[in-house]
Design goal:
CATH topology: Rossmann fold
Strand content: 5-15%
Structural class: alpha/beta
Helix content: 40-55%
Radius of gyration: 18 Å
Number of strands: 7
CATH architecture: 3-Layer(aba) Sandwich
Number of domains: 1
Strand order of the largest sheet: 3-2-1-4-5-6-7
CATH superfamily: NAD(P)-binding Rossmann-like Domain
Order of helices and strands: EHEHEHEHEHEHHE
Shape: globular
CATH class: Alpha Beta
Length: 266
């Protein structure tokens, strides 16, 4: 047991992959769940089932189907969370996870210039996958929801330092995300709030499946991993639950590898 019962969590990208697995793991440990996702009508049945599974652990659960990069929607959700927590007298330490994977996958210099990465693509990718971390944390902080003992996590990847076809804008966003986490950790340390990047190993998620050549990437990662398998969303969720306890209060500003040893093998 990770001694996190009674806390609450806000998860961005909460309907699949790392976000969904973390929601279930935290709920299993007695954490109330607030999830932000963006799904079309065809995907809502899956989200409804996830909500039922979360509530099956006896915790409160609220999901918001919005654009996490929209400032007005962000404020509306945070104010709604504050209203719910205040009504339940539950403004306890928060567990915040930024796991947004919505960016443009294009080369900078393809043979056909009309297919090249453009300013609008780079700016959208950076805003959703990196800048939004700062904006959400600011919103939570100034509404008084990030109290002492709160934990902030952002999902990064080896792509922050490595290159892959069409991954340029996402790679830049991941590198920025890590820099933002360091700055957040620095500024909020005196308030007893920690912030860390979680660098997952190659994981077969819907987001990764959108990357050209993903099968080759997954095969290579599994082949070189000394644990002889890929990372799973559940591996990440268990670590986030573990690091959400009071015992991790002196860990902040880090890039924490959770990959079964994948990153130590060339």
């Amino acid at each position: 047991m990770n001694n996190i019962k009674g806390k609450w969590a806000l998860l961005l990208g909460a309907s699949s992959g790392f976000g969904a697995a973390t929601a279930l793991e935290l709920a299993k440990n007695g954490v109330d769940i607030f999830g932000v996702h963006m799904d079309r009508k065809s995907g809502l049945e899956k989200v409804d089932k996830l909500n039922r599974d979360i509530r099956g652990y006896g915790v409160d659960c609220h999901y918001y189907n919005i654009n996490a990069g929209d400032a007005e929607e962000r404020k509306r959700v945070v104010l709604d969370i504050k209203k719910i927590l205040s009504a339940n007298n539950n403004i306890n330490p928060c567990i915040f996870l930024h796991s947004l994977a919505f960016g443009t996958l294009r080369d900078f210099f393809p043979n056909d210039q009309t297919k090249a990465m453009e300013k609008k693509h780079i700016e959208m990718t950076m805003d959703v996958m990196a800048n939004s971390l700062v904006y959400w944390v600011q919103e939570l902080y100034y509404e008084g929801l990030l109290v002492k003992g709160s934990r902030i996590f952002a999902m990064t990847s080896a792509g922050a330092k490595r290159v892959w076809k069409t991954y340029g804008a996402v790679s830049a966003a991941k590198a920025s995300l890590e820099a933002y986490i360091r700055q957040i950790a620095f500024e909020l340390a005196s308030r007893g709030i920690t912030a860390n990047s979680i660098r997952a190993g190659a994981t077969d998620t819907p987001a990764l499946r959108k990357i050209p050549g993903c099968d080759y990437m997954l095969e290579g990662a599994q082949r070189k991993n000394p644990s002889a398998r890929l990372t799973t969303p559940e591996d990440i969720a268990k670590v986030i639950a573990l690091l959400s306890s009071e015992s991790s209060g002196w860990m902040t500003g880090n890039i924490i590898g959770v990959d079964g040893g994948e990153n130590i093998v060339e």
